[in-house]
Fold this protein.
Amino acid sequence: MLQTPASRMLANCNLRNAMVLNACLSIIYILIGSFRGLLNFKGMTEYLFYFATVSGVFLLRRHSRHFAIVGAGPAYYTSLVNPLLFCFASAIMVARSAIAHVMQIVVIVLFFGCGTTIYRLSWWQKFVGKGDPEVT
């Protein structure tokens, strides 16, 4: 699959922005706070992302019957025990850290909210699904 120049530029820009944000947050936490605070922030953020990702399995399973592919045969569903256990464990880990570090969870929620807002309002969203043909 060949990428268009616009999609390559967007991917490079996103990677660069993520690395700059990571470096800035790390420098701020080390200069103002402590290295332990940085590790707590990183751990809570990681497990919150993991929880959101794995809980997406449940959304996909619920909506998968609407996206049936003609001629693909019956859908394969795995057991939900592992995703349920992982969601439960990660929710407990995040909740435990959130109770101990209230200010950090507020920053994380604001961070997620800003990211969601930027994603929803970004300029390239109006082009998704509109005639940008993929060249294979």
The helical segments are 5-32, 35-63, 81-100, 102-121. The chain has four helices and no strands. The chain has a mean pLDDT of 76.
